[in-house]
Known about the structure:
Strand order of the largest sheet: 3-4-5-8
Number of strands: 10
Shape: globular
CATH architecture: Alpha/alpha barrel
Number of domains: 1
Order of helices and strands: HEHHEHHHEEHHHEHHEEEHHHHEEHH
Largest sheet: 4 strands, antiparallel
Structural class: mainly alpha
Strand content: 5-15%
CATH class: Mainly Alpha
Radius of gyration: 20 Å
Helix content: 40-55%
Amino acid sequence: MKDLSMDVDALDAEAERILRMNDRGGYSVPTAGLYPYQWNWDSAFAAYGYAMFDLDRGWRELEVLMAGQWPDGMVPHIQFHKVDPSYFPGPDIWGGVGPVPSSGISQPAIAATMARLVYELDPHAGAERMRALYPKFIAWHRWFMDWRLDRDAVCLTHPWEAGRDNAPDWDGPLARIDPSGIAPYERRDTGHVDPSMRPKKADYDRYLWLVKQGHDCGWDQAHLREVNPFRMADPTMHFTLLRAHRDLMWLGEALGLDTSPLPDWIAQLEAGAETLWNARLGAYDCRDTVTGDWADAVSNAAFLCWYAGVDPKTTAQAYARVQSKVQFGVASHDPESPAFEPKRYWRGPTWAMMNMLIAMGLDDAGRPEGAELRASTARLIAGNGFAEYFDPLTGAPAGGKDFTWTAAIWLGWASPKARRGRWAA
């Protein structure tokens, strides 16, 4: 492991180089080859990273993201600005109905929170741009409230919607899906990354079956709510939207805008958080809304409760247990679970941007673990580079290289210079 104090300037410069390299002129890609398009929550983190050295570019990232909003308010998880054959499934498979060729699902509502962080860097410079974005955020948040609630808990309708694609949380409901009828396909992701670090074919078959179901009905949300066999109430979706509601309300009040729907939405999700508490597990958990079954899985999403500002109950005990089993960051799945795989995507690896969100919540709660997690993540990146994700046991890099959101959260959060307020307006 490198001596972090010797490398801060070089790491800052490398992170900025990665962001500039992944810039496609108004939007960024997560990394070349593996992810050649604009991803929703990746883009939100990227905006924060760009703002550390180019405030205008940070706002532009958010503006391009929200320009792809569908007429019903949904902001898709992928926008296909320029077709690239290195990625599958592309726009023809999705059949999105927005102003930009896109996927038909959304992703965790990180953008309003990142917009607040960018705005706070220079409120005067960001006021008019935030005013223009504000109604778009309101419409997107309203879409979640209209179409993604079960017992006031926010659901996902595809594993890709939560961003935690192959998490063990989804194994039960995915196993019920018979993927018969999907056309033969050729994956592209395993040509860029070691297949042992990616979802298995059985998972991918079901991902594509769910895409076909949405495509065939033109992404009719009312119809999908009735027929989709995969609908999971999820801490990732719930806690990020609740936090985003709070940050959007703060922005609206700061700018003198109409915040009237937000107090009720916040109260609704505060109540809904109770339906995600698995007392047997001692942590917030995913719940299958079709069967009522718990996932019975402690994921890093469980630790977003502090980020959302809800009662953590005994989550601190689960957090301490999980952290005692790893060396770097927060494992995406319980290291004591038989389903734990330290290098396979969301079945165990640690993700720097999730570490940031968890630490933000811990800091808000006045807990010392936030600073500890920041330091751990900084050591991880300093010693292993700007990978997509990392082995939480060894720190070994995994997934894509030169990754946008890892570079972004280094500049905005993990870098010691960021913590000394280098980027204050």
